[in-house]
Specification:
about 325 residues, Rossmann fold, 2 domains, four-stranded parallel beta sheet, 11 strands, elongated, binds 6-O-phosphono-beta-D-fructofuranose
C-alpha cells in the first residue's frame, strides 16, 4: 500500500502550509517531515504553522526546509505544537485565517488532526474557497472514512506495555485492576489493547458499566480458578466512570485497584506502523494537492489509500466492529 503512485499535476503550487491541531498524536512529526520533504522534491515551499489554528490566526508561521525536519521522525508530540482553538469556530476568524494565508502567498493548507480539526478545515474551504487537505491524526482512531489514524497504533502499544506491567503486579498480589484508557466515545484503544493484552473484560464506552453484572462475572472467574483480573475500561464521555465503578465494586466486598493511563498514551515515540502511515499520507498529501484535489481527507480503507470528501468525514460516527468485542468475549473465557 505504501508505494507512491503517479499523479498528473493540475495545480501549479509554489507555497503550501501545514499545521497540527487537536490532541497531539505520535507520528504527527513523521507526517510533517513527509509533507516538507515531498514539497522540497516537488519544488513547493512549505510553511509550518505553530499551535494549530491558534497560530494560524496569529500568523505564527515559518518556512521549513529539509534540514528543519531532520531528526523529528522518531519523536512523539508535534514539533509544530498543537492547540484546541475555540476562536476558529467563529466564521469571521476563518475568513481572517484565509486572508492571512493568501497574504503570505500560501496556496493550500494541510491539516493533521482529529475530527474537530478536520471540521475546521472543511469550514475554512467551504466559506472562503481556500484549498485544504486533511490527514487523520488522533490516537482515538475515531475518524469516519479511514480504518486507521496516525497515532492509534502507538497509543495501543503504549497502553499494552502498561497493561503487561500491571498484569505482573495483579498476578503477584492476586488482585483485581481496573485500567482506564483514552479513546473518547469509540473504544478502539480499549478493544485493541484489551484483546492484545488479554484483559479479562473490556468495558466499551457506549454503555454504562453494570457493577452487579461485572461483580457476578468476576466471582465466576474466581470460582473457575482465576486469582487476578484486569478489566479494561474505555474512558467514554463521562469523566470518573472508572472510579465510580471501583467504589461500587468495593461496596460489594471487592478490593479493586484503579490505574488511569491518561495522557501517557498520547506521548512517546511513534511505532514503526505509525511512522510508515504518516510518512506515506504526508507525502501523498502534497501529491494530491498538486493533482488539484482539496476538501478531502486522505485515509486508508481495506489497505488502500482513499481520498474522502471532508463533507463525508465530519459529523459521522465511526463504530467499532461488534465482531471485535465478540472476539474479546471468546478469548477472555
Ligand atoms: O482525542 C485525543 C484525546 O487524548 C482523547 O482520547 C481524550 O479524551 C482527549 O483527547 C483529552 O483531551 P485533552 O488533552 O485536551 O484533555
Amino acid at each position: 500500500m505504501y508505494g507512491l503512485t503517479p499523479i498528473a499535476r493540475q495545480r501549479p503550487l509554489q507555497r503550501i502550509a501545514v499545521l497540527t491541531s487537536g490532541g497531539d498524536a505520535p507520528g504527527m512529526n513523521a507526517a510533517i517531515r513527509a509533507v516538507v520533504r515531498t514539497g522540497c522534491a516537488e519544488g513547493v515551499e512549505v510553511l509550518g504553522i505553530r499551535r494549530g489554528y491558534s497560530g494560524l490566526l496569529a500568523a505564527d508561521m515559518t518556512p521549513l526546509d529539509s534540514a528543519a525536519v531532520a531528526n523529528i521522525l522518531q519523536r512523539g508530540g508535534t514539533v509544530l505544537k498543537s492547540d484546541r482553538c475555540e476562536a476558529f469556530h467563529d466564521p469571521a476568524n476563518r475568513r481572517k485565517a484565509a486572508d492571512e494565508l493568501r497574504q503570505q502567498g500560501v496556496e493550500a493548507l494541510v491539516v493533521i488532526g482529529g475530527e474537530g480539526s478536520l471540521t475546521g478545515a472543511l469550514h475554512l474551504e467551504q466559506e472562503t474557497g481556500f484549498p485544504v487537505l486533511g490527514l487523520p491524526g488522533t490516537i482515538d482512531n475515531d475518524i469516519y472514512g479511514s480504518d486507521d489514524s496516525i497515532g492509534f497504533d502507538s497509543a495501543v502499544n503504549t497502553a499494552l506495555s502498561a497493561i503487561d506491567r500491571i498484569r505482573d503486579t495483579a498476578s503477584s498480589h492476586d488482585r483485581l485492576f481496573l485500567v482506564e484508557v483514552m479513546g473518547r466515545n469509540t473504544g478502539f484503544i480499549a478493544a485493541y489493547a484489551g484483546i492484545a493484552g488479554g484483559a479479562e473484560l473490556i468495558l466499551a464506552p457506549q454503555r454504562e458499566p453494570d457493577p452487579e453484572a461485572l461483580y457476578r462475572q468476576l466471582l465466576k472467574s474466581q470460582q473457575a480458578g482465576k486469582t487476578s483480573s484486569l478489566v479494561l475500561v474505555a474512558e467514554g464521555s463521562k469523566p470518573g466512570r472508572t472510579q465510580w465503578l471501583a467504589q461500587e465494586l468495593e461496596q460489594k466486598g471487592l478490593e479493586p485497584r484503579v490505574c488511569i493511563l491518561g495522557h501517557t498514551q498520547r506521548g512517546g515515540a511513534p511505532t514503526g506502523h505509525d511512522r510508515m502511515l504518516a510518512s506515506y499520507l504526508g507525502s501523498m498529501a502534497v501529491r494530491h494537492l498538486l493533482a488539484g484535489d482539496s476538501q478531502v481527507m486522505l485515509g486508508v480503507r481495506n489497505n488502500t489509500r482513499v481520498a474522502v470528501p471532508l463533507t463525508r468525514v465530519v459529523n459521522r460516527r465511526k463504530h467499532l466492529d461488534p465482531g471485535v468485542l465478540e472476539l474479546a468475549a471468546i478469548l477472555h473465557e
